[in-house]
Amino acid sequence: MGHIYQRGSIYWIKYYRHGRPYQESTHTDQEAEAEKLLKIREGEIASGKNPGILFERVRFYKLVEDYLTYYRINKRRSIDKAMIYANHLREFFGDVKAITITTDRINEFISARLNEGYMNSSINRELSALSLCFTLAERAGKIQKSPYIQKLAEENVRQGFFEYPEFLTIRDALPNHLKPVATFGYFTGWRKGEILNLTWNKISMRERVIILEPGQSKNKKGRKIYLMGELLAMIQELHSERRPNCPYVFNKDGARIKPFDKLWKKACKDAGLSDKLFHDFRRTCVRNLVRSGVPETVAMKITGHKTRSVFDRYNITSDEDLAQAASKQEEYIQSQAQERKVIPFEKGYKKVTISR
Predict the structure, then answer these.
(1) What is the pTM of this model?
(2) Within a domain: residue 300?
(3) Is 343:312 a contact under the CB 8 Å cutoff?
């Protein structure tokens, strides 16, 4: 059992957990308040929880270290970005106790980043990192409860996609070794890095299928793509021209294609499509799959989207989609009108319908 005692005018409490003694200042000279805190600590221990004093000792830098360790041991490819986020968080919050980082303090961080000119989306990525820091600490029993973190509305979410004629225009403007890369991106929605890293041992020409094993994609999930039509014809042509010593499907003179940002920007400028990104092929593929009637769960497997929330961000609605929706609604209403004879009632707005 624990007890209270005084150091000067301030009451302290002492209690035990698994035979280990803990001493804690109550920061009060009121005996009743000290007794109350002692009962709280003993209640926490009796219910199998860590006493609150352990949470109060955890410092924020330790949470950040655990966050980066999580990325390393899980071999996350975005470790470089995680380190940038971690540095920004440490610069603002400093070496403080984790429990002092409250919702109010987090809102101060958001205000500071906005004043520095950061976009909402950039701040949200840092808030996601902060949230993961606390989630990992809570799972490990290092903190009792994570603070509430309110994300910002992202009005700057990219909405770009390619209509088919635009795709043909940009492909024609690209150098010959990048034309197949653009074609593959348009039809599959794969990420640029996944396309450039694709090797022939992942393709079965006999079965006309591409198979990525788990761990070979960004989200660590396996993926299978069946080849047909224009995509199949392109892969067959590349296969017939492949070099024996080059494992990469897409290459330049037998070497893996390097990042081509400058060539892409030049092609976009020449094609009069300067606002386009290669990543827009990913959004385009999602939209084309959904438009063609492919179930969304199947579309997610083709494009490699792991979560529904991210997939929904790429499922872009265009003006043409809205126009088609209005047209379909009108067709439906007309079909319903043909099934019933509508007779006006006098000159007012009331109408009587008589079923045939």
Answers:
(1) 0.52
(2) no
(3) no
